[in-house]
């Protein structure tokens, strides 16, 4: 936490965002589906416009000229569904059959400006469509809902929000609450030439919102009159096309900054080198995508409206495990995030000043066992108690315990795992005196879920209102 | 400071700025910005925040016309046909054995047509009369009040709030009923919006409890458990959930009780400065600029407290720019200002962190320790 504040202070001084991470911790698809859009104020089920595409210079904008007209709305959503299905069809290739793994070789990725748009698109629109009588629309709803279920999984890259991308990798000099606006975060990270971030962020505040809720003033001054005009044209049967063209022009202008912002954010993050664990997590995403395709093929892509108690428990359990695992993987992959752990006192960093690879102790079995000792001069005082177990960040098989801390701060560590086979092995594995070393606290104990399939002690959950 | 002197100082400070009764939303907003004297003074004199903020360059607020239309349509749907949909919800969700609605509309328009006057004081007196009948347990009395006006004391001064509905049930308690137009999808509404609504209901509950107390009926006759009516899924059909705002009531009571008295507030108000009357939007540029300058001077003269929740306050842009210009740590949000304690500028904090200045007090030492750990960790990692 203190490193985060320190970086914010530095960002304020530099008048420019500071890197929080030195690696890219998300998978970036070479062909993401970028979606930006607005819904009618107060009515998330009624899209006003959706702009989507897989290239910054080529997109399609769907417009619902009268968002409260359900026929118009579902006709446009059907168009979106057809395009989505076409896009998703590119990701159905499986690995070679002789390989044991039949996971799809690639998975689709949806990129949106902010978490609110992701929620609107995958959860709300997904929910409004998946029970539709029309099969194609219901399938669109099922796809979107699948993305919604993955969106909340820590470390998943199937749905990414541009503001999250930026704030994961940079720290701005504004309040965290302001970081929810794509335009201002972008101004902090990448101000236009000739401006510092503070000026750029003030300018960015005048840009139209990134959605999914439009600017109330724009609604009142521009959109409402145009919708009225369209309504009159439709009634009189003359000039409907012209009215639609005007609506389209207005909404395109409003959506353009967010559209460009998402692509800029993606390009900025793409410049960072990929972190080592990203392919591992992307493999999880590909596996889940494959499973979703299988369920769609079997006609079983249903999602319960509400999880039952057991499922909720398992889901929470999974979220907790994944949150921890993600934080751990990110710290191991990234020197800057590792520095944050050191600053917080969770990790021990310093220089090796002594090494005894022949140290032996009497084990509880009575036999003598090799337990090499390391002495470390910490860069920052380490105040965890004796007996704390730590792992070496460069080789996590090496487990040590803190056995002594000298008055001058030098820490004695006893290696209990990973380099105890022989003196020669220990000398080969452990760092020599003079080398820098970082040890982190890595509790990766897996607590298995031992609950039965039915919970015997709770009443049957009441039927949830549909 | 004596009471008259305080009143005079506050009146001088208000100057030509009109005074406005506080809305429930604004009172509930006190929870977001505790301890901000600037906001407390403006609330105490009832100065309108949004016109002042807009004058000072904040983007104009306001609701989308589409949201307003939808809210009206939904309210009509819920209250249509002798409140049929609402009655059903009251019975099913709140467990209130109401069989028929005897409604009384106390909205400004209604009261004006009936009594030829509709000022808040008059409506508040009418509302009190009806509430008294309801509290008496009269079986033939009105059991649903629409838009009553209730009085609430803030820093020793009465102020008015206007709830949507107060329903009465024969279980001997009054329950608040609130109609909102954000959707409740599969039984779950947006938690952010529900929590905003819960705070506003809490304001209404406290006001009604105070009325009951004044009438000698006991505050517990007004329940904290009410009904929140929302559109179901993607339709305009009504659904509802019981909502207990007891925690919000407790927190707000604390804030309201701790709201400084006017004599205490007046001490922070400097002499010789006053707020302008916000000129209309189409006023000449020079007039608006002059008013803006006066407003900036008057507001800047009051001490403020800046933090994460300020985003919901109308004056956010003004205070943010002020913090930015001062190079204040508070500009970076609560996490930064909590860590930096009384080291209030970015330069001072970084000097401590990077060892350019030795800490002189215990508090500075703590800040220096925390920040220099971060600085060392970063340099160590960069040099490796």
Instruction: Give the overall shape of chain B, derived from the CA principal axes.
Output: globular
Main-sheet strand order of chain A equals 8-11-14-13-12-15
Largest sheet of chain B: 6 strands, mixed
Q: List segments of chain A where confidence is low: pLDDT < 50 over at least 5 consecutive residues.
A: none
Q: Strand share of the residues of chain A? A: 15-25%
Largest sheet of chain A: 6 strands, antiparallel, barrel
Largest interface chains and counts: A-B, 54 and 53 residues
CA-CA gap between termini of chain B: 62 Å
Written as H for each helix and E for each strand, in order along the chain, the element string of chain A is HEEEEHEHHEHEHHHHHHHEEEEEEEHE
- Number of DSSP-assigned strands of chain A: 15
The helix/strand series of chain B, from N terminus to C terminus, equals HHHHHEHHEEEEEEEHEEHHHHHHH
Based on CA atoms alone, the radius of gyration of chain A comes out at 27 Å
Oligomer state of the chains in this structure: heterodimer
Helix content of chain B: 40-55%
How many domains of chain A? The number is 2
| Number of helical segments with 4 or more residues of chain B | 15
Tags for this model:
heterodimer; A: 466 residues; alpha+beta; Thrombin, subunit H; six-stranded antiparallel barrel; five-stranded mixed β-sheet; 13 helices; 15 strands; 44% helix; B: 384 residues; 3 domains; six-stranded mixed β-sheet; two-stranded antiparallel sheet; 11% strand
Give the structure's gist in a few sentences.
By secondary structure, chain A is an alpha+beta fold. Chain A is built from 13 helices and 15 strands.
Explain this structure.
The complex is a heterodimer of chains A (466) and B (384). Chain A is of the alpha+beta class. Chain A folds into 2 domains: 2-330, no CATH class; 347-440, Thrombin, subunit H (Beta Barrel), CATH 2.40.10. Chain A is built from 13 helices and 15 strands. In chain A, the strands form 4 sheets. In chain A, strands 8-11-14-13-12-15 form a 6-stranded antiparallel beta barrel. Chain A has a 5-stranded mixed sheet with strand order 4-3-2-5-6, sandwiched between helices. In chain A, strands 1-7 form a two-stranded antiparallel sheet. In chain A, helix 6 (182-189) runs antiparallel to helix 7 (197-204), helix 8 (216-236) runs antiparallel to helix 9 and helix 11 packs across helix 12. Chain B has 384 residues and is of the alpha+beta class. Chain B folds into 3 domains: 3-57 and 261-326, no CATH class; 65-257, no CATH class; 329-384, no CATH class. In chain B, 50% of the residues lie in helices and 11% in strands. Chain B is built from 15 helices and 10 strands. A 6-stranded mixed sheet of chain B has the order 1-2-5-6-9-10. Chain B has a two-stranded antiparallel sheet with strand order 3-4. A two-stranded antiparallel sheet of chain B has the order 7-8. In chain B, a hairpin with a 5-residue loop joins strand 5 and strand 6 (174-179). The longest helix of chain B is centred in the N-terminal third of the chain and has 30 residues, at 65-94. The radius of gyration of chain B is 25 Å and the shape is globular. The model of chain B has no long low-confidence stretch (mean pLDDT 88). At the A-B interface, helix 1, strand 3, helix 3, helix 8 and helix 12 of A face helix 5, helix 13, helix 14 and helix 15 of B.
């Amino acid at each position: 936490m203190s490193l985060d504040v320190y970086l914010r202070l530095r960002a304020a001084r530099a008048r420019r965002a500071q890197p929080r991470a030195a690696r890219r911790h998300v998978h970036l698809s070479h062909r993401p589906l970028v979606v930006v859009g607005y819904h009618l104020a107060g009515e998330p089920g009624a899209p006003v416009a959706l702009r989507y595409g897989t290239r910054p210079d080529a997109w399609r904008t769907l417009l619902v000229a009268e968002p409260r007209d359900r026929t118009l709305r579902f006709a446009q959503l059907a168009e979106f569904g057809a395009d989505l299905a076409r896009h998703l069809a590119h990701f159905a290739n499986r690995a070679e059959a002789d390989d044991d793994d039949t996971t799809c070789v690639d998975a689709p990725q949806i990129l949106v400006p902010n978490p609110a748009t992701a929620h609107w698109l995958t959860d709300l629109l997904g929910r409004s469509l998946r029970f539709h009588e029309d099969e194609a629309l219901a399938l669109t709803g099922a796809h979107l809902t699948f993305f919604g279920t993955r969106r909340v999984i820590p470390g998943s890259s199937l749905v990414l929000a541009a503001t999250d991308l930026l704030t994961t990798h940079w720290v701005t000099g504004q309040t965290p609450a302001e970081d929810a606006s794509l335009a201002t975060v972008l101004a902090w990270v990448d101000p236009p030439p000739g401006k510092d971030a503070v000026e750029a962020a003030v300018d960015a505040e005048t840009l139209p919102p990134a959605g999914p809720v439009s600017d109330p003033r724009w609604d009142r001054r521009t959109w409402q009159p145009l919708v009225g005009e369209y309504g009159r044209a439709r009634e009189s049967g003359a000039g409907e096309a012209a009215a639609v063209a005007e609506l389209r022009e207005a909404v395109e202008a409003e959506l353009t900054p967010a559209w460009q912002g998402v692509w800029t954010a993606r390009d900025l993050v793409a410049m960072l080198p990929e972190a080592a664990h990203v392919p591992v997590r992307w493999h999880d995403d590909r596996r889940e995508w494959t499973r979703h395709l299988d369920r769609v093929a079997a006609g079983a892509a249903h999602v319960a409206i509400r999880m039952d108690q057991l499922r909720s428990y398992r889901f929470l359990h999974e979220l907790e495990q994944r949150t921890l695992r993600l934080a751990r993987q990110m710290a191991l992959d990234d020197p800057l995030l590792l520095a944050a752990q050191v600053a917080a006192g969770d990790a021990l960093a310093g220089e090796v000043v002594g090494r005894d690879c022949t140290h032996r102790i009497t084990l509880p079995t009575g036999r003598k066992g090799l337990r090499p000792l390391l002495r470390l001069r910490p860069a920052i005082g380490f105040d965890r108690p004796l007996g704390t177990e730590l792992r070496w960040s460069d080789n996590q098989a090496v487990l040590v315990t803190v056995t002594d801390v000298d008055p001058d701060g030098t820490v004695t560590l006893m290696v209990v795992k990973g380099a105890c086979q022989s003196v020669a092995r220990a000398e080969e594995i452990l760092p020599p005196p003079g080398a820098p070393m970082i040890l982190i606290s890595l509790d990766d104990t897996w607590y298995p879920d031992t609950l039965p399939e039915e919970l015997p002690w709770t009443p049957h959950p009441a039927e949830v209102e549909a | 400071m004596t009471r008259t002197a305080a009143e005079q100082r506050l009146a001088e400070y208000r100057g030509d700025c009109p005074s406005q009764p506080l809305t429930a939303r604004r009172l509930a907003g006190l929870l977001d910005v505790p301890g901000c004297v600037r906001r407390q003074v403006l609330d105490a004199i009832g100065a309108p925040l949004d016109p002042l903020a807009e004058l000072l360059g904040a983007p104009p607020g306001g609701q989308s016309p589409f949201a307003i239309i939808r809210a009206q349509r939904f309210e009509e749907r819920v209250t249509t046909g002798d409140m049929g949909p609402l009655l059903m919800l009251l019975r099913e969700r709140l467990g209130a054995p109401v069989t028929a609605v005897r409604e009384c509309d106390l909205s400004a328009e209604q009261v004006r047509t009936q009594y030829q006057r509709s000022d808040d004081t008059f409506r508040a007196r009418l509302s009190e009369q009806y509430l008294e009948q309801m509290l008496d347990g009269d079986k033939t009395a009105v059991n649903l009040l629409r838009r009553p006006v209730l009085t609430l004391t803030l820093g020793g001064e009465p102020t008015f709030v206007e709830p949507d509905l107060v329903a009465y049930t024969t279980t001997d308690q009054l329950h608040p009923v609130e109609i909102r137009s954000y959707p409740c999808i599969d039984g779950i509404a947006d938690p952010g919006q529900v929590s905003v609504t819960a705070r506003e209901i809490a304001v209404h509950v406290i006001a009604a409890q105070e009325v009951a107390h004044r009438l000698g009926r006991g505050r517990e006759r007004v329940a904290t458990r009410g009904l929140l009516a929302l559109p179901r899924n993607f339709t305009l059909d009504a659904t509802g959930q019981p909502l207990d705002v007891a925690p919000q009531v407790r927190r707000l009571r604390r804030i309201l009780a701790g709201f400084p008295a006017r004599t205490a507030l007046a001490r922070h108000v400097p002499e010789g400065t006053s707020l302008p009357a916000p000129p209309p939007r189409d006023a000449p540029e020079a007039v608006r600029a002059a008013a803006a300058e006066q407003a900036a001077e008057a507001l800047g003269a009051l001490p403020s407290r800046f933090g994460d929740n300020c985003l919901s306050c109308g004056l956010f842009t003004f205070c943010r720019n002020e913090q930015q210009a001062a190079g204040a740590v508070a500009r970076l949000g609560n996490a930064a200002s909590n860590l930096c304690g009384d080291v209030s500028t970015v330069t001072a904090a970084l000097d401590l962190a990077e060892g350019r200045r030795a800490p002189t007090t215990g508090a500075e030492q703590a800040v220096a320790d925390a920040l220099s750990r971060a600085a060392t960790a970063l340099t160590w990692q960069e040099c490796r």
